[in-house]
Structures
1.
Amino acid sequence: MRPHSHRLTPLALVLLSALFILPAAARDYVVRGPQGGLAMKVTLPDDFDTARDRCPMVILMHGIFSRKDYVPMPQLARALARTGIASLRFDFDGHGASEGRPEAMTVPNEIADAKAVWDYVQTLPYVSCVGLLGHSQGGVIASMLAGQLAQAGGPVPQCLVLIAPGSVIKEATQGGSFFWQSFDPADPPERLKLFGGFRTLGRDYLLTTQTLDIYGTAAHYRGPVCLIHGTKDTIVPLWCSERYVAAYGSDRATLHLVEGGNHTITRHRRQFIRQAVAFFQTTLVP
């Protein structure tokens, strides 16, 4: 047998280089949440000059176990840009390219992430006003952030879009069943493995979610709200959106049903996007 060579292969060189490149990349995060840097992407309208022009912006918030570059976030960003509206989408802590451990994710931590992004957007000179959009758990985050901002008495979002807002997470954790995996809600495990171990929730998530005042916090926001829900959503029941309408009041919130639409928005996607963009056009664009 020939002795092992100590010469590095091209692949080994790439991997070794990554050890030095990754820490430098981590320092490029411009916004940080409780668990560290948040990966973001801004999409601007065509031919938009950030040094000269101004436009509205929508902060896009993905759902649990998702990320900024999964459906429907990139599609929403492109559709908004075509109407002259910028967007910023980001990965919550422990998701996608953001820092943090997935099992340390909690709703309060994600609200803090969203608040950090909100504060950053307030510093952008080319942004004229800001709306929020959240899908699934991102809808819970967007609604509670808007409510907390209203309570604080400072700037608030111009408007809010909630797509299948996943407020059922409270009832699920209280009942000890999350994505068909059972646990003791009074004494949950340190890690709850879901989908055959492919995804994990931490104990803090399972405990803190049980005590969230989702609708009470959300109701402090007094601006216009658009709720969009698919009639074939088997993950988040329709009553979640209906309770949001009740919390906001029908004078401020409207519910739009997408016939045949599912939770992951792989069916009738254009209808979801068209409804959201039309709402932003009427509430954000002068």
2.
Amino acid sequence: MTKEPVWQPSASQAALESRAQQLAFVRGFFAQRGVLEVETPILGQRGVTDPNLDGIQAHVAAGTRTGGWLQTSPEYHMKRLLAAGYGSVYQVSRVFRNGELGRRHNPEFSMLEWYREGFDDVALMAEVSDLVCGWLGCQPPEAIRYRDAMECWAKVNPFEATDRELARRCEQWLEPEQLADLGRDGCLDLLMSFAVEPNLGMQRPEFITGYPASQASLARVSMSGGHETAHRFELYINGLELCNGYWELTDPQEQRRRFEADNEQRRRSGKPEMALDEAFLAALGQGLPECSGVALGLDRLLMVKLGARDIREVLAFPFERA
């Protein structure tokens, strides 16, 4: 017997009204600051090399080109606008990530991403605080270092613990054969997810700063406390990660090196290599202005606003009903 499809939306009308109010607030916020709203492709010719992200491939035939990728973030296209001299920009975009489905994840979701020319990570954190706390009506975040958070809740020093010590701390969540393939950063990510994140932002919003250089992604790196750390931050409220921001790397050679290192890690983990985005690297070569950027999950921000425990409560049609 064919099962009847569920055609009704999963979000209430009140939730969708709050989403509309959220979008109006965001646009007003950036209009007051003179930041340009832009649109960039949802369907691009390249995906990302990040070994922690799996894109969704599209089958497109357009002229002599075939294939394509639904974008996991508008980052590379937006940085090409920055390199072309468009100044500070923001975008509300639909983005896509394969294999992400659950209480806090949907394969398609809404992202607010913005880049501020002349800002470092500290200045951008202040603006993130203004936007998020202005919308939620909550007190501003406090900042805690990645190292301090890991020592407090995971009981390890993430910079000085040996690989074996990190693996032992992960044994309660994974089998030994799984740990063997996890690697150092994989262990750190697991400890952050299971031991640290549930405790973050429970009394007031919290920024995590000072990530290890190996987790810099597209952020600059500098020495702090005798260790290389990334100019990267994340914001948490009630154990929920809302955003990820960087003082952006502008060196094209270093960016290429990181992309190639990503692909090496993908090979080791059995994932396919990804073609490098040469248009993005060419834009860096032309010259990316000093800037910081951040990506903020609007669905999750709406969950916090409404006290929702499941992302389906703020989506009209989650993947199961799409």
3.
Amino acid sequence: MKLIVGLGNPGLKYKNTRHNVGFMVLNAFAEQNNYKFKNKREFKGEIYIDKNFILLKPDTFMNLSGDSVRKVVNFYKIDPSDILVICDDFNIPFLKLRLRMKGSSGGHNGLKSIIQNIGSEDFPRLRIGLGEPDENDIVDYVLSKFSKADLDKFKSLYSKTNDLIDEFILDRSIDLIMNRYNTNESL
């Protein structure tokens, strides 16, 4: 069983904010495939369950995402290597995809929470570049909404991210997926 987690913050206040790219990518994947999320209190999130994979959007807010992930991982006995976490990264150029097999949180509080809750750094993560903020306050930057132009550019990623998720579900080698989707330039 594969688990694909999109990180973000719940509620209309955070819709289309930079910190919610994980939710946005998972929503686009679900929409393309006509999957419908259901709110499951026992998992503290919105979830879609298939026989081969689970899509999860934690509703615990970013900094507590690991609590939701842990509940799903423990219930379905999912190995960390079968978890793909999708999140934002302001240290990566805008729209660049960076898939890694494992690693530290890199200062991302959602990843940090997941690592603490499942007790492992050995899970794939797809970081999506936001570009460096112009202003000094990182929190304001990641919680701000995309401009209309940037949102349109961001949506152009969905075909790539949808294909990447499909390949992960089909159990393609992470190295193969990394070679295909990690690029030196943004779109």
